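Saturday, quiet lab. Running sequence design on the structure tokens for the scaffold JK sent over.
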């Protein structure tokens, strides 16, 4: 489709669109620093060639370079593109443009600028291709179903699929055997050798080998370990722990056929085997009212990822929903845009593995609606994943059970009552959350915790976050029934 043909192919140019509020725009920000930076750009000075149709908002923003950044936002997604080098999604320029649009600084136009229209046309073409690819397997399945009288063709198809699975299993096994030997070499040579690698990338070559071996999950762990020697005090312990987990994963894969089904599924997931969306949606549904406890964007991943933690108000189960930002577009915009603190009556389908945590949303019975302050549950009925709540002891007990089931687990949902206490620079005490019983847990990412302290006012509050081996990453605090992002 050419740019000219797109102008007559359904691009809406109606000027009567409802503009979002500033609060709705800032709710899209990945973190507090992006909100502050966007607010600083919410003024006419750095902007030119701005405009809006019913579908798009666009503009040029002067930066430090010679050429201004080109920013386009598709409102329906929403989806964003910006020529700046930021990996934040959306970046401060997209947020600043939307803030100007929300307050009336961006005028309605009859048609988009050429660069905005070209991006929209390219996105539409990609979407059409993706839809065609999704339809192709269904057509193929229908064709196979139409000739059931030819058992030879069915047998050949099944044999070909089995051969592909066997070939991948062989590649993975060979790659993990090399990995195990490489791990032994790292320990024999000594950990200080990792420091001498250029840019700390001592594991990058082995990570590339794991990609060739079709073990992308292992490759990602190795890339993360490459920078551990540059991570400050205590790095040898962290690096050895990472090596040990990879060794355990390689040994578990050797015994994959003899492992319990749940653990085998976990091992396959950690290595990088994927489970198709349709297969997950075919699993039994868990019907509940799911409250959005916390949202966290991971910007430094190979593909920017949004993690959405939800809690079943009736079942007491927690679940992790993932959305991926591919080419400026969310893979699952309905999940990515779930507002913090809202509830949705829906079916969740859990991926195989133990403990069951990651899920997909199936049938939605209601749109998201405002929720209230969560009521923590001490345990989940039916053997589901509990939402850790109450005191530190409950959290640590649930974490111990979780890593017994999945030794490679790095993030666990937490819902805690406690009073935040700021760091003491002189004594070296970090930020921490003190529970009702007087025990405390360390808080990570202290640059965003002044909001937590302000909401608390020195009193106990409900905090949701991700528990990690070295502390709690707070994501949300409740002020009454209002969820406040941290």
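Result came back. Writing it out in full:
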């Amino acid at each position: 489709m050419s740019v000219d043909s797109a102008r007559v192919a359904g691009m809406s140019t109606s000027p009567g669109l409802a503009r979002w509020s500033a609060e709705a725009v800032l709710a899209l920000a990945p973190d507090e620093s992006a909100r502050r930076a966007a607010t600083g750009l919410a003024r006419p000075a750095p902007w030119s060639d701005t405009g809006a149709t019913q579908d798009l908002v666009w503009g040029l923003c002067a930066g430090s370079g010679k050429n201004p950044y080109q920013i386009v936002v598709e409102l329906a997604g929403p989806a964003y593109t910006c020529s700046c080098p930021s990996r934040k999604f959306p970046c401060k320029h997209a947020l600043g443009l939307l803030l100007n649009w929300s307050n009336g600084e961006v005028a309605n136009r009859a048609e988009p600028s050429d660069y905005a229209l070209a991006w929209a046309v390219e996105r539409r073409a990609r979407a059409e291709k993706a839809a065609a690819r999704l339809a192709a397997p269904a057509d193929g399945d229908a064709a196979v179903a139409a000739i059931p009288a030819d058992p030879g063709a069915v047998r050949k198809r099944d044999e070909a699929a089995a051969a592909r699975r066997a070939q991948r299993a062989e590649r993975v096994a060979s790659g993990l055997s090399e990995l195990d030997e490489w791990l032994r070499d790292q320990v024999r040579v000594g950990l200080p050798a990792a420091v001498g690698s250029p840019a700390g990338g001592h594991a990058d070559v082995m990570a590339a080998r794991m990609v060739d071996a079709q073990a992308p999950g292992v490759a990602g762990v190795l890339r993360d370990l490459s920078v551990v020697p540059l991570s400050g005090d205590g790095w040898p312990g962290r690096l050895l722990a990472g090596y040990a987990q990879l060794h355990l994963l390689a040994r578990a894969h050797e015994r994959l056929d003899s492992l319990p089904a749940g653990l085998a599924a976990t091992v396959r997931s950690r290595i990088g085997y994927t489970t198709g969306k349709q297969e997950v949606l075919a699993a039994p549904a868990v019907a509940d009212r799911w409250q959005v406890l916390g949202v966290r964007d991971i910007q430094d991943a190979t593909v920017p990822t949004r993690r959405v933690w939800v809690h079943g108000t009736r079942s007491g189960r927690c679940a992790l929903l993932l959305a991926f930002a591919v080419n400026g577009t969310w893979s699952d915009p309905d999940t990515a845009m779930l507002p913090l603190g809202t509830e949705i009556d829906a079916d969740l389908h859990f991926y195989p593995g133990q403990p069951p945590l990651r899920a997909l949303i199936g049938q939605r019975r209601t749109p998201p609606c405002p929720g209230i302050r969560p009521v923590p549950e001490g345990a989940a009925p039916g053997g589901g994943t509990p939402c850790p709540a109450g005191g530190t002891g409950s959290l640590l007990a649930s974490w111990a059970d979780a890593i017994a089931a999945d030794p490679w687990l790095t993030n666990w949902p937490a819902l805690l009552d406690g009073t935040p206490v700021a760091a003491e620079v002189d004594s070296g005490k970090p930020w921490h959350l003190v529970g009702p019983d007087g025990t405390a847990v360390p808080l990570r990412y202290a640059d965003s915790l002044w909001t937590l302290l302000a909401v608390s006012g020195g009193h106990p509050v409900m905090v949701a976050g991700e528990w990690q081996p070295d502390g709690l990453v707070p994501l949300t605090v409740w002020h009454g029934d209002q969820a406040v992002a941290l």
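Notes for JK: Residues 1-16, 137-147, 378-384 have pLDDT under 50 and may be disordered. Residues 275-486 form one domain. Ask whether to fix the surface positions before the next round.
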